[in-house]
Each structure stands twice: as C-alpha cells, then as structure tokens.
Amino acid sequence: KKNTMKNLKSIIIIGWFFCLSLGLHATSPQKSNLFLAACARPVAAYDMHVNNVRARIFAGGNLFNDKYYGGNYFTPASSSPPVSAINGVGVWMGGVDRSGSIKVSAVSYSLDGSDFYSGPLDILGTTEATACDQWDKIFTVKGNNIMQHIQNYKEALENQTGLSCNDITDDILYWPAQGNPYFEEKYGWKLPDQPLANYFDENDDGYYDPCLGDYPIIDNASCANGIYKIPAEINFFIFNDAGGPQTFTKQAKLQMEFQVSAFAYNTTNELNDMTFYQYKLISKSSEDLIDCYFSWWIDPELGCYNDDYVGCNPELGMAYIYNEDALDGENNSCFGSDNYKDEIPMIGLNFVQGPKVVKIFKRDANGNIMYDADRKKILIDPEPLTGDVDTLVIGQMSSFINYENKTNIIDYIVKEIDFYWPMKGFWSDGTPLTFGGDGYNPTSSDIIKFAFPDDPNDPNGWSMCTANLSNYKNSMVMSVGPMLMLPGSTNTLTMSVFSVLGVPYPCPDLSKLRYANEIAKNLFENCLKDYYFIGPDAPDITFEQKNLALTLKLENAKSSNNFNESFSYTIPNLGSNVDSEFKFEGYKVYQVANNKVRIDQLSNPKFARLIAQCDIKNNTQDIYNWQSVLNPDTSANAEKYIWQKVLKVKAENVGLQHSFDITEDLFATGDKALYNNKYYHFCAVAYAHNNWKDFD
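User: That's the sequence. What structure does it adopt?
Assistant: Structure tokens below.
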C-alpha cells in the first residue's frame, strides 16, 4: 500500500470560488579591459502581483529589496497592512578557472555595492554604458494577451487570412526576442542578434515575429513543442557582471550573462501562493569555469525579523523560513516592521528546475565502474578543482548554510565572508559545517552540507527549534552545483518561492509545505500541464432581497467548465489501475467576514462560516485528502513519514441544492437576525472528487 500511496496527489479539487458583497585562492579584481566604459548601476524595478503574492523585482540581480530594511515580498498580498516575508534575495555565482583562481560575482543590497549591470554581453564578454542604460528595463507581458494572441492566430489560419499586426498588444509586439523586427519602433535601438527573451517559434525560422504567430513563453526545453500553461505574467530582464568594477565582492568577474524570467500563475490551488524566477546562465568568458555554483543569498523577514527560524529538507532540495514561536514579534523590537501576529505563514524555496551539474562514475580500486542494486551506475561529485566529468544530470540543492547577521551588515558581508566557501556549504573561513548547535564546531568530525536538515517538530532531529537559537537574525545561502561552464555554454535553472498558511506553531509540521513543494516540482517535471490548474469553476451567485432575509441562488453559465454541472477532467498518464478522473461532486456556501477573504481562509471560523453543503446523491459521502506527516514511530526501521487522511467535506449526500434562504448573520455575537440596508458577504465553492483507490 505504501508505494501506491506515495503517488497520491489528492482526492478533491477545489474549484474557483465566487464572492459576493451585498451593499581556494582569490585573485585581485580585473580592471577595465573587460568593459568599454563603466556602466551605471541598474535602477529598474517592478511589482509583480497576479495572485496571492506581491513581489518587487529589480533588474540588477537582487530581488524584493535594494536596501537593508522594508522587504517587498508580501504574502498574503491581500492582508492589511501588507506584511513582507522576505527582506531580500541576491544572486551569488562563483567558480574556479583551470589555474585555480576563484572568480565570484554577487549582490545582497545595492547599498553595499554590486557586481552586476544591466544588459547582455557581446561575444567577447564586454559591454558599454549605452547598452547598459538601454537594457535597464523590465519587460512585462500578460498571459491573457498571449492566450488571446494564440487564439487570434488560430482563427486567422482557419479563415485563411493573415494575422493583423494592429491586433497585437504592445507587450507581445515589442517583446525583446531575437530578430524582432518591430522592437526598434518602440525603443529606438536595435536588439543584438543573439538569443534573448524566450518565445514560441511558430515557423521555426529562428527569429521572433509575432505577426507570423510567435509569442512569448518561458524556457522549458524538456516540453515538446513548447505546449504548456502560459503564466499570468512574465517579466524579463538581463544583467551581467562585466559592465564595471566588482564593488561588492572585490573579486575577479565571471563574464557571465544572466537572462531572467520572473513569472507567476493565477490559480485556485497552492500555485496561487507561488512565484518563479528562471535564470539562463550564459558564459561569455574565454576560459572554462569549473566547480561552479549558483546560489541565492536570502535575508528572511517573516514579519518581525528578530524571531525567524530557517531550515531545509535535503531530500526534497527545499529550504524554508518559519517563526520561532506562535506569535510573530512577541517581546521583540522590530523597529516598526509590520508582523503576522498569530497568522504566520511558512515560506519554502526550491530549485524546481535544476541546472545541469557534473558527476563522475564511482569506480573500484581497479578503475571499474560500480553499479547499484538496480544495475545503475553510481554517480558521485568529482574531486574539487579537477574539472573531471563523466556525465551531466539535473541538479538540486547541493548545500544550505545560514549565518547570524551582525549589526553592521556591510562589515559582516563584505569584509568577513569569502563568498565562494558558503556556496559550497562551508563557513566563510573554510571551516566545514557540522551537525548540531549552530553548525560551527571546528573540533567536530560530523561534517555535513545542510544546516538544520530535520523537521522542526521532530524532537530527535536537528533544527533551530531543537537547537533553541532564540533571537537569531538569519541570512542564508542555498546553492546548486558543481557546474562546468565552458566558453559560450548555457545552463538554465528555475527557483520557486511559495508560502503556506494555517500551520501550527511553534515548531511547525511541514506537511503543507511539502505538499506545496511537490506541486511546484511536479509542475516542471510534467511540462507545466493544465491539470495542475483545472478545477470546476465556481457558480455565479444571484440573490433576491427580502425583508430581513435573502435568498441566494447558484447558477453555472454556458461559459463555465461546470455548465450543467458536467465538469470532468482526467489526469493523463496515471495508468489503468487507478481512478484518474475528477468529476463535479458538490458545493459549499459560506458567509464570509468581508470581501477580502481568501479561499485558504474558508476553513477558519474567524473569516468564514459554512451556511450549507450539498452534493450529488451517490455512493460518495465524506471526502478526505491524504497528506504525509512525520511518523510518530521514531524507531530505526520506521519510515520517516506516513500518510494521514484529512477531512475536506462532511457530506449530506441528499442531492444538489441551488437556492438557499438566509435569515441569520452567522457572525453576529448576539441577535443573529439580518438587518435591512446592511452589507453581508458570501462565497460559493464548487468541488470535484475522485476515489483514486480504496485504502484500509
């Protein structure tokens, strides 16, 4: 049963909900021979807000913030006042050339200096000030416009008429993709003839022309024909580390070009609480870069920054941020920062689309390749500084380390850290990370690559909870590698940031976070297919006002995927021995506290009260989802996680209902009667079900 249940995704799909309101050795920095004229620092910024997250992106390698305070990763975005969960993120990348010289480029906050500049590099790995100024932009395209463009082109083909360029929105027409003949009309300068922003090439001619049916996409090379779910928004920008001096790390530059797509989806499931950041790394150096690592430096700020904890799950490749206790900001001075109070999310981060990393075959003393029990070659990391490689595989998080920030962040980062060591999972002085405490123990031989790798609610594991590291101001570095970057080579990776709500504190269980992480990973492993987005549309709510009463009515329009309550969706490629078809099953109707209540809050009586539940009268009664939880059996042979069912619908099973008489205010504390000329708020949810399999 266990192996079967590991593949279980869920047995209920919640549809859209409708709300109604009534009423090594470092080298010295290389000089200006690598740039024709020093560029200015990038200043372009944009707030990406298409779902339950509002995230500020910057064009120069840092995200969410360019100062020391006031982070801009707001989740949930609808909270009032908005609270940021992350103060800032910076790209770090480093490696070693064949002579053993370390090369590193990085940024934390731009006030500390930065190694990055806007725009692409030429084939010699150089740029100049004019190009940097031109590219100090973030190009945004809306998913709705892309889908309409696809439909318009399809209709033009069916009608045997050409697609009119006048019908194409500017974000698509002027997308900065290779060969776009219209780009100069808007921006006044020509695009370089090289791969730039990603696009679907309708006629495979190697150049972008939206009037011939091309359209913007994100890079997912493993997906056939580029057919997959279009994000609600894509934001594209380019930065490099060769436009000027390295004012942050003071080390030798990589001559690396970074093409970035920041994007998000608007859905009814956990993807609605996620944002994604895709980096295409392009080496414009004339030298090999071995032992190369890409890292995110992260400064958590889960509301109040003085009570944040961090951890990781090496098996899943996931890092995460959580709160020290059950009340954010309690007994701490946060210098005016807004906090989450007692509604604290958890934040997860993962390389959902890892880059290609190098591996070598494990060999015995005679040089023979060794195999595992399944007759697969055993892969291991090459010895450092050798540059050896037998094969390339898709990598995931290779190390995770955290630091306690000091009062003067400039002294802490710039003067004390050797940037390359943390990317490899070492302390800045080269001391290995060790198990237990805060991870720094030069006398210990218990060396690891991942700090705080156990679940916070595991009393026998190592986490910040069990280490009891109170008032610990963290910054952390999560890395992936080693990579081999040859001259002209590219490597692509995608980071996800996701949040989950309703977790129990202190020392929370990771079940919800693991499930969200699985959805993000599966999305990319399965080519961004629609079945991660599809649920029955919520019904429209109409109402009839009466004296001291209301009648709510549910209807499904012809445009709804649940018209005539016929929603059905089959998840492909699951095999013949399981029920893979989801069918519409019923409705839930709620009174909600206000018009800002989110779907994830409907189970919280503070925000929502269930008025009615109705469902098709059939053999389906109560509906459960299954989720993995920490196994209370901690014996040596026990599995770490077990599956546990969670009740999602307590079913009446007496048939569907479409009209509901409302005579009481479920949020009233005394007299529950409705009053005329007063605003009340309601939501309706449609849900689908499948049985998957019968379990004991």
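The longest helix spans residues 143-158.
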